[in-house]
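Issue: ligand-bound run for flavin-adenine dinucleotide - logging full I/O for the record.

Environment: standard queue, default settings, no custom constraints.

Inputs:
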Amino acid sequence: MLSDRSRPVIEATLPVVADHIEEIATRFYTHLFGEHPELFDGVFNRGNQAERTQQMALAGSVAVFASSLIKVPEQLPEHLLSRIAHKHASLGIIPAQYDVVHDNLFWAIVDVLGDAVTPEVAAAWDEVYWLMAYALINQERGLYSARGVRPETVWREWEVVEKTPETDDVVTFRVRRIDDRLVKTSLPGQYVTVQVPMPDGVRQPRQYSLTRADDGEHRQFAVKRVRGDGKPDGEVSNFLHDRVQIGDRLTMSLPFGDVVLDDSGRPVVFASAGIGITPMAGMLSHLAAAGSHLPITLLHADVDEASFALRGQVLADIEALPGANAHVWYERGAQTSLPVDVHAGVLNLEDVKLPDDALYYLCGPLPFMQAVRSALIERDVAPRDIQYEVFGPDLWQADLVTEDTPGAGRHAAG
Ligand SMILES: Cc1cc2nc3c(=O)[nH]c(=O)nc-3n(C[C@H](O)[C@H](O)[C@H](O)COP(=O)(O)OP(=O)(O)OC[C@H]3O[C@@H](n4cnc5c(N)ncnc54)[C@H](O)[C@@H]3O)c2cc1C
Ligand code: HEM
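Outputs:
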C-alpha cells in the first residue's frame, strides 16, 4: 500500500504522468534496448515494438496500477498483474531484471518530464514502481515454484513430429519430448512461448495456445501465417510455416496463461473468431478427455468454412461431449457440410439460446471480443463471468479496469 507521504504526490502528478506515459514508455524502450541490445535476443518481441503495442501496454499498466493505488488502495488490480506475470514467466524473466527496467524507466521519466521530477516526485514514483515490481516478482516466483522450475529452466527442446495444414493459412505443429523428463501438465486454455532463431541470428519469442489436452508426450499448437499486406510479413509465423519441418527441434517454454477453464461445474460458452479458435480447441480437448457432461456451447465466427481452422478436431470433440453444441457464423454465407448450426454474417447472440449461469471465454480480434462482451453485459451476464484472451499485448484490459475512473488508462486504448 502507498505510504501517506507518497499518496498526495502521486495524486497530484498522476494526470501529468498519465498524459506523457506513452512518450515515457517509448523513450524507455529506446533507451533500454540501446543499453541492453541482448534483450531482443529471446526476450522481447520486436514485432510488438514495431507495432508499438508493447509500449502502449506497459504505459497503460503503470497508469492503471498507480490510479488503482489511489482509488482502491485496499485491493491490487489482480487481473492486470496476473496477465503480466504469466507472460513474464513464459519468457523466464528474473527478479534482477527489474532493476534494469527501473533504471531505464526512471531515466525516461526524467528525460520526458524534466524539472517537474523533483526529488519528492521521484521518490513517490519509485515507491509505485517497487510496489508493482514486487507484486509481479512474487507472482512470478509463485508460478515458477508451482511448476518446479527456475526462470532459466522454463525452456525445453522438442522435436516436430507432425506438421498438418489446417487451412490455407494455418498449420498445426505436433511436437514430442526428446528427453526423459516428465512433461509438465498444462491447464486448459494455456499457451507456450516458442523461441525461434531468426535468419539474422536473433531469437524471437512468440506465444501459441495449446490446442490439445496433455498426453504426457506431446504438445500441439496451430499457427496462422501473418501476412504483411503492405507492412513486413510476420517473422515467426512465416518462419514456422516455411522453414520448420518434421524432425526439426523447437525451443518452447512451459505452459503459462491465466485464462483457463474454471472447474466449478458451471455451463461453459466459448465465443471465438478466426485463429481465436485455438484456446477453445485446447479447452474442448481437455473437456472431452475428462468425459465432461457439462452444458457446453461453442460460438465461432469465420470468413467461410474453408477458413475455419481445427474444425474437424473441434467438432469431433463437440460430438463426443454429451452436453455440447456448436454454432458457426460465416461472413460469406451459411453454407456448410458439417454437422453444425450455421448462420450467415457476423456472430449474433440473438441467433442462439445461451445457458443460464454460464462462464464465458472469448478469443479473437479485439473489436470482436468487445462487441461480444458488450452484448453479454446487455443480457445481464456479470463481467466477472467473462474472460478473454488477447493474441498480443493486452491494450483492452487497462481500459476495462479504469472504466469508472476517467483519466488514467485512456492511453492504453490504442
Ligand atoms: C497469449 C497468446 C496466445 C496466442 N496464440 C496464438 C495461436 O494459438 N495461434 C496463432 O497463430 N497466434 C497466436 N498468438 C499470436 C502469436 O504469438 C504471434 O503474435 C503471431 O504469430 C504473429 O507473430 P509474427 O512473428 O509472425 O509477426 P510479427 O513479426 O510479430 O508481426 C506482427 C505485426 O507487426 C507488423 N510489423 C512487424 N515488423 C514491423 C515493422 N518493422 N514495421 C511495421 N510493422 C511491422 C507485421 O506486419 C505484423 O502485422 C498468440 C499470442 C498471445 C499473446
Ligand atoms: C514493474 C515492472 C514491469 C511492468 C509494469 C511490466 C509490464 C508489462 C506489460 C503490461 C506487459 C504486456 C503483457 C500482456 O498483455 O501481454 C509486459 C510484457 C513483457 N515484459 Fe514486462 N513489465 C515489467 C517488468 C519487466 C521486466 C523486469 C522485464 C525483463 C526484461 C520485462 C519483460 C517483458 C517482456 C519480454 C514482455 C513481453 C513483451 C512482448 O511480448 O512484446 N518486464 N510487461
